[in-house]
Write a structure and sequence with these properties.
mainly beta; 3 helices; elongated; DUF6089 domain-containing protein; DUF6089
């Protein structure tokens, strides 16, 4: 799958080279939590930190292409669940993740960072594709309690996810720096983030629906690059 993601990035940068107006690059910091067959059932409830790098390239006044990479861990335990059955089962897991994604971001309001004196603010949505690598977990014992310790394969696993992101962003007054905050739900194409459906171990939980995970946090980016000429503006 690595080569497929490489081709995705090549297409991303080829398109942006031809049409871009300006660029953004910066840092992301937040938290991550799974929505799986182990642990709490809250949607936004970060249990481990997440950090990464983010890059955007503007296509139109309200449309940008976006690529990012993030590192984080997904962790949860049944003791944090709201259902009594999970609390009595008392399973837990920890999965080390790295994700790389490319997609589109749409601003609901006009957001042109080349206007140096205008206070900018807009909500936005984002989607695309993420390729991620993770630990391959399994349970060889489904007895309740601490005896049901998850195991880890020597090799890592990989899969894809589709993000559904909502956020807000603004510019630090009179500068090229932008700050934003967002919540993103990842729909994955695997049901084994928590080790509940491994080829080697025993299966449990809902085997018919894939796992999800949440990434929520904030980022700081710096804008650079010349604005693309608009001949209609000069004609006015």
């Amino acid at each position: 799958m690595d080569r497929y993601f490489l081709w995705l990035l090549i297409g991303f940068f080829t398109l942006t080279k031809a049409t871009a107006q300006y660029n953004e690059i910066g840092f992301y910091f937040g938290g991550a939590n799974p929505i799986s067959d182990i642990g709490a059932t809250y949607y936004v409830y970060p249990t481990k930190p997440a950090f990464g790098l983010i890059y955007k390239r503007n296509l139109r006044k309200q449309l940008s292409l976006r690529a990012d990479i993030k590192w984080f861990e997904l962790w949860d335990k049944d003791a944090r669940a709201t259902t009594e059955a999970r609390k009595q089962r008392d399973f837990s897991f920890l999965n080390r993740m790295v994700e790389m994604g490319a997609g589109v971001e749409y601003d609901f309001l006009h957001f042109d960072t080349h206007d140096p004196f205008k206070l900018l603010f807009t909500p936005y949505v984002h989607t695309g594709f993420y390729f991620f690598k993770m630990d391959r977990l399994y349970f060889d014992n489904l007895a309740n309690g601490a005896s049901a310790k998850y195991q880890t394969y020597p090799e890592r696993d990989e899969s894809w996810a589709i993000p559904f992101t909502f956020g807000v962003k603004t510019r630090l007054w009179g500068s090229r720096f932008l700050i934003g905050a967002e919540v993103s739900m990842r729909y994955t194409f695997t049901n084994n983030i928590d080790g509940s459906k491994s080829g080697k171990g025993k299966w449990f939980g809902n085997l018919n629906t894939p796992d999800w995970y949440m990434i929520s946090g904030a980022y700081l980016t710096y804008t650079f690059g010349a604005k693309k000429c608009n001949c209609f503006e000069f004609a006015k």
